[in-house]
Structures are given as C-alpha cells and as structure tokens.
Amino acid sequence: MADIRNYTINFGPQHPAAHGVLRLVLELDGEVIERADPHVGLLHRGTEKLAETKTFLQAVPYMDRLDYMSMMMNEHAYCMAIERLLGIQVPERAQYIRVMFDEITRIMNHLLWLGTHALDVGAMTVFLYAFREREDLIDVYEAVTGARMHAAYYRPGGVYRDLPDRMPQYLASRSKNESDLRRLNENRQGSVLDFIEDFTRRFPGYVDDYETLLTDNRIWKQRTVGIGVLTPERAKALGMTGPILRGSGIAWDMRKQQPYEVYDRMDFEIPVGRTGDSYDRYLVRMEEMRESNKIIRQCVDWLKQNPGPVIVENHKVAPPNRESMKSNMEELIHHFKLFTEGMHVPEGEAYAAVEHSKGEFGVYLISDGANKPYRLKLRAPGFSHLAALDEMSRGHMIADVVAIIGTLDIVFGDIDR
Amino acid sequence: MPLTPEALLARVEDALGDKLVSSKIAVGEVTVEVKPEDWLEVATTLRDEPGLAFDLMMDLCGVDYSAYKDGAWEGARFAVVVHLLSIVKNHRLRLRAFCADDDMPVIASLIDIWPAVNWFEREAFDLFGIVFEGHPDLRRILTDYGFIGHPFRKDFPVSGHVEMRYDPDLKRVIYQPVSIDPREITPRIVREDNYGGVA
C-alpha cells in the first residue's frame, strides 16, 4: 500500500494559465482536487471608491480598465445608469453605434477567450488565428476612438463622435513592399463601416476554421467534455450569468428578455447548451460569435443609410461642438462648466445592466445630486463565476482546473475592480 | 410579458405584508426596504413565493450613508442593498435594510437562500465592516492580507493609511505611514434647490 499524503499547493499568482493574478490554494488528495480556494484582490484598485472622488465624466475611462477584454461594454452600463437618472434619451444613431460596438467587443472578447482557453489546454494554433482576426477589430477601435484598447468612447448621452469616413491604411516601410501594401490595404479603401462590413463577410469563414481545429478534435473533447458540469439549478443558485448560464441550458439573455438600446429591432438567436460542461460553454460562445456577426451586419446596414446626431443636444450633459463653442458665449460657458465642475445627476439610485460578453455587468449608482457619484457599485460577472470555481473543480484533476479557469472566462480587471 | 413596476410592487406588498418598512418606484425600478431582523424571512419569501420567484441574486453591496448630501443624512449609517432577478418571471427588485447599530453593523447572512452571496458578503464585510451572521467563511477578500480598516467607509481616506516599500537594511518589505495627502482637484458640490433660478 503506497503512502498517500494530502498536499496543499499554490497555483499562481504568477502562472500563465491563471489569466492574470489569480492565487489559487489547492488542497489535493493525490492529484484530485479536494478544495480550491481562490485568493483574489491582487489587482484591487478601488475603482468604486476612486469614482466617488471624480466627476461623472472622469470615471468613464476607469470603466475600460475593469474588464479590459470588453472595454466598451463596461462603459455602456455606466453610461446607461447615468442616463437613466438624468432621464435623457440617447439619439437613435448613437444607439445603433453602441449596439454595433457592443457586438464587436463581444467578438473581440470571445476571440481572446478562445485563443487563451485553447492555449491552456494545449492547442497553439487557434491562438494565432484568433489574434489575427482580433487585430482587425482592434484597428476598428483605433480608427474610431484613437485607442486600441481603452476607448472611452461611450459618453453619457451618446458616443463621443461619429464614425470616421476613412479607414486608416498601412504605409510603406522596409518590411512591406508594394504588393504587400496593396494586399493589406485592399479592404481599407472605404469608410470604417465598409471595413466592418467586409469583416462581417469574412468572419463566418474564420469561425468555421476555428471549429475545424477544435469542435471535433479528440484531445479538445477529452479535455472539456464532462469537465466542470453545472446543472441549471446550481448555475442559478451560484449566480451564474451569460454564456455559462446558457451553457447549462437556461435561455436567459438580457438582449432578448430585457432589451436595451435597439436590441429589440435586431434579428438574432440565443444559443443554449445542454449538459452544462466546458464543451457546451465552448459551443455556446462559438455560436454567439456568429450571432454577434449578424447583429453587426444589421447595424452597419442601418448606419449607412441613416445619418444623424450621435450625442444629445443637452449641453448640461454633453459638450457643445468646437465651432459653436468658439463663436458663442453661452456654449463656451457650458463647455467650461461641464469640464470643470461636471454634470449634476439628480438625486436617486439606478441599476443598469448590460449583457456583457461574460455575463451580466451591472452598475448600481447612487447619486445625492452632486457632481460626483455618491456610491458606485460594479457588479462584475466574473466575480460570481470565480466564486463557483471551488464547487466546479472538486473531484477533478489539477489539469482540469486549468480547463475550468479557461471556460469561466475570467479577467481580473473586473473581479478585483 | 414582464410585470409593470406597479404590479410587481403590489405583489411584493401582498407577500411581505407588515414586514415592509417603505417602498418606492423610481426610474422604473422597484425598491423595497425592510427591517434587518426580518432580513432572512423576507429573502426566503421573495425566493419561494411563486408569483415573485426571485431565483437569482445578482448583486449584494454595502452602502455608507454617513456623508450623504454632505452630512444631511439622518438615520442608520450602513445599509445592505441586494439586487434580485427572477429569470422565470423576468423582473427585478432592489431590497435594502439598514443595520441597526452604526458601530457594529450586523445582519443575517443570506448564504442558505442564495449561495451566490458568499463572495459578495465577504466583499461587503471587507470594504464596509458589515458582519454577516451565519456566513461560514467571513474572511477579507479584496484587500491585502493583514489589512486594517474598512476602506470604502466614507471616513477612510482615498490615499489610505499605510504604504509599502522594500527596506534594504531589514531586507524585507515594510509598512509605513503614507507620505502623500489626498488631493481634491474638483470639489464635490451639491447644488441647493432652485440653483440659478431654474426650478
């Protein structure tokens, strides 16, 4: 009889499969997990407290840095909470732009999730493919906002500016010759919307490529089928949302059930899993990318035909344009007051949630009528998901913990806030 | 079709009866306040009543009201706010209870009703010092190991009390009082009613 002892090991905080700064204390019986205790907070920056010391507008860029894989969606929930308290209606074009960028962000997030999850499990190729497509979407971010990641594009009352008429092109350099340039700039000849449209035409083929690499792959299935199973009852009790809840077979999606912006005009499906294991969650997310692609396409079509304002005319909330600011005393005062003192949000409280790429991202905002939030609580989807790691990984092997962390799609920016 | 806020509030009033302290509908959201001693009972009713069926606990957080409207707040200091969602019925509810004692805020833990509150209650304990009775593992969660104080209370400075550095003589990391002062670049302003003659 071999002598078997229980071990306690540290997983992380510096571990490539920990997706950031997760410290996991694992109690093991041989190689079987008896208890997993995640220690979080290593990235705690106190965003909620910092926001209490900043004006409403100054806190927008903080939102990007929460879940730094789906930047604009965080801003979206925050702006929606402010708009709800102010009682302002966002212009229709801005709503379409927001929906389009939410879905672009969802694809970006899922591509990164797919790449890293597959990499953790041992499939290197998918990572390279996924990042190639992600680069195109980051270029769209950059063309529209000037930043590749931390966009600060959504503002209370709309979005910062309209979509540009021109997609930036590659320039000649030592590493790019004439024919390379022509190939790279081929789909960048028109506006940003043309580029996005071209992307939506290409993208379903790319998803097919990823699926040929993984969906029927024997190793991938061995690592994910039956791993981290969540029954619908447990998924609800543990507060799971988003693809994890849908992977367990519950057709709950805020975009359908409690539609915000113009999601009620979009035509798309909600993919639902059956068994609630890691493989089903993989299938759900893959299908979600295809559905997001459809939504983007519908938004592009609408945006091409319907010009209009992208931010409200109320200058107590949104700045006046530069031209009128320089020729009109009233607008100059508005601009000055808005960027020094900031907007005043009426007393009250609001909870605004969006169907974030990871689940339900909610912003609970309490205002006492000041130019700063009184209390801001960010409901991060990953926080509930990681809390369930203990239950999901019990009885599995160490290697499966890595697969479960991958399938949970956690990012420490929003768990630790 | 989801219920209107008014219809939902009527149902909640029916189910809770005299346990309801106050209720409000604002910006399309229903807020219900209950007494802390009824906390567990109210939560159980909200989950199990078939017409309400709040099966998902979305969010639980603490709030420190001591600086509300620059100190004009009267009443208990700490509140616990829970956001509930019913997937079956497709409606949401905000539930609030003020902790009776300002110096030692205590409230019952909801862990047996919604296991999802586990980390949320740890967070509220960590950041506000609200004690959840019956929680099996009420450790700090977001702050550092050995952290002192509850940083999201309004009397806790944004810059904190201690900072950390490596001491080359002692050859280890030490804590020392902070060397920076909190700065307020944009002052916080609550405007009086009828500011600028606008109603």
Sequence-ordered SSE layout with sheet pairings:
The complex is a heterodimer of chains A (417) and B (199).
Chain A: E1 6-11, E2 23-29, E3 32-39, H1 47-52, H2 60-64, H3 71-86, H4 92-121, H5 124-145, E4 154-155, E5 158-159, H6 178-184, H7 192-214, H8 218-224, H9 232-237, H10 242-247, H11 254-257, H12 278-305, H13 322-327, H14 329-340, E6 348-355, E7 360-367, E8 375-379, H15 381-387, H16 389-393, H17 398-408, H18 412-416
Antiparallel strand pairs in A: 1-2, 2-3, 4-5, 6-7, 7-8
Chain B: H1 5-16, E1 20-26, E2 29-34, H2 39-48, E3 56-64, E4 78-86, E5 91-98, E6 106-108, H3 117-128, E7 131-133, E8 162-167, E9 172-177
Parallel strand pairs in B: 2-5, 6-7
Antiparallel strand pairs in B: 1-2, 3-4, 4-5, 8-9
Question: How would you explain this protein's 3D organization?
Answer:
The complex is a heterodimer of chains A (417) and B (199). By secondary structure, chain A is mainly alpha-helical. Helix content of chain A is 49%, strand content 11%. Chain A is built from 18 helices and eight strands. Chain A has a three-stranded antiparallel sheet with strand order 1-2-3. A three-stranded antiparallel sheet of chain A has the order 6-7-8. In chain A, a hairpin with a 7-residue loop joins strand 7 (360-367) and strand 8. Chain A is globular and about 85 Å long. With 199 residues, chain B is α/β, with parallel strands linked by helices. Helices cover 17% and strands 29% of the residues of chain B. Chain B has a five-stranded mixed sheet with strand order 1-2-5-4-3. Chain B is globular. The model of chain B has no long low-confidence stretch (mean pLDDT 87). At the A-B interface, helix 1, strand 6, strand 7, strand 8 and helix 15 of A face strand 3, strand 4 and helix 3 of B.
